[in-house]
Amino acid sequence: MAAESGAAGPALACPVCGVTGPFRDHPRSGRRNASCGHCGARERHRLLALYLKGHPAEGQAGREPPLAGRRLLHVSPESILEPLLGDVAEYVTGDLTDPEVDLAIDLTATGLPARSFGAVMANHVLEHIPDDRAALAELFRILEPGGLAVITVPVVEGWERTYEDPAIDTPELRELHFGRWDHVRWYGRDLRLRIAAAGFDLEVWQPSPADCVTYALHRGASVFVGHRPG
Fold this sequence. Notes:
230 residues; Rossmann fold; two-stranded antiparallel sheet; 18% helix; Methyltransf_11; Methyltransferase domain-containing protein; methyltransferase activity
């Protein structure tokens, strides 16, 4: 991956580390202000940090941190977010290949007890999983009633349907079609239907346009929160 470039750009706020200052660009992807110049948090980390802190969504009031007091499973955990999760009742990490996690799990069939977590967080995970519907069903199964599945993925909101094709099966083709060698789809607006089909009540948390400027977020970026009824 190409190195990120330093630049004396505008002072921007990072909700992960709390520092205000210039951010770094990502030349390869053409993303301006991609990462915090202090802690390195990228757009997806900053987006999720605002949600985790109870920051108000567009047109709404602020609220308590949504994961406080819950037993949390963090899938494919990002260490940069861990300091923001100190208010959870228990923090458990899981991944299929990372040897440093607490649980070695396949998200389509975890083998975990049903209704065993109050929240599951999967930040840019589902776009890597060929059978994402099975993964969503498994998230629903392992959540207790009232539990939350906190999901972020790359979404093209202008597309009605998700773009995926099992025949696109080499790193080179996946890079060309899906933007990364290890992605298997670009989600469209029907992501909402996939989450709902697993049984969830869906909340779409989205920061305001002004927050997108202040924190250098992708315009229109969203956190998809599946609420297990109960």
